[in-house]
Amino acid sequence: MSAESPTAPGRIIDRSPSLSGAEMVAQLVPPRQFATASLDNYRPDRDYPSQGAAVAAIRTFLSGFGGGGGGGLFSRRKSTPVLPGIYLDGGFGVGKTHLLAALWHAAPGRKYFGTFIEYTALVGALGYAETVALLKGASLLCIDEFELDDPGDTRLMARLLGELAASGTRMAATSNTPPNALGEGRFAAQDFLREIDSLASRFTTLRIDGLDYRRRDTDAHARVSADVAADLAAVTGPTTLDAFPDLLAHLARVHPSRYVRLVEGLAAVGLTGVSVFGSQTDALRFVAFVDRLYDGQVRVIADGVPLDSVFPEDMLSGGYRKKYLRAVSRLIALTTGTA
After folding, report:
1. What's the fold here for domain 215-336?
2. How many CB atoms lie within 10 A of CB 84?
3. Which site in 24, 77, 284, 319 is 20 to 30 Å from 327, CA atoms measured?
4. Residue ranges of the chain with pLDDT lower than 50?
5. C-beta of residue 327 within 8 angstroms of C-beta of residue 295
6. Are 37-208 and 215-336 equal in CATH topology?
7. Looking at the domain 37-208, which fold is it?
8. 3-state secondary structure labels for all residues of 72-89
9. In what order do the strands lie in the sheet with 170-176?
10. What does the domain layout of the chain look like in residue ranges?
């Protein structure tokens, strides 16, 4: 008797998700690959002492919560004040998100964890006042991948953080420094502090050096499938198959705050006819989509142009360079199974 044939893939373009404000906020938790992240299971690279120092600094930051609850501005348990904000600065793949998730898991009270893009998308979907109302009173707000390349969104986030900090919420953030910036001596900490100038004195900044664990093989590239449908058929679990242009058109119709539902429950997505981006708007939407794929550890199977080559040089050298390089790193991991 022949084996049961695999379920035919669905299509992302057939998914039209909706989320209420409360449901959006409920999604603000660490990605599933960091569900068990802790300071104890973080493995610092001994060649980079700043990684071990970051663990110690986060333990000190946690002491600032005192006996639990909302935190307040300073710990009363130590003679040295513990600032209510901590900022982790470093390149791709050095463990910043693991440390941020570990902090979230260890902190008491009502708390939220999301990327910068998720928080700005939340404001875009619900409005500023409703977003503040939903988040206010949290003990901790974690912002992964704090973006410094969009002045408007950065000012918006600084304003949001200011209102939440005034009510006793403590804050933790990360951002990336592109690999080539290391030679320029340009880490992002000073940019971050300048952009949140009214809050800068509340943050302890930590620089974390190291290599990207996803790209220690410098020859790594995104895998291109010779037969997307056949590769999808070998995947265990629900899959989708879409033409790349159709996916981009659909992403334009769905608010980025709802991209999480586009990939919910999927084991893999298939894309045919991948091509180089000509529109920066399409490229930025795709970056947000890749973030949700990576959070969900959804495998990507694609043909056409390799997915690590879809961002043209003029985009990679422009203001959104950090976003694109992060997406490239993640696409290599998702197409090669090394995520």
Report:
1. Rossmann fold (3.40.50)
2. 24
3. 24
4. 1-5, 67-79, 178-186, 216-218
5. no
6. yes
7. Rossmann fold (3.40.50)
8. CCCCCCCCCCCCCEEEEE
9. 111-115, 140-144, 170-176, 85-90, 203-208
10. 37-208, 215-336
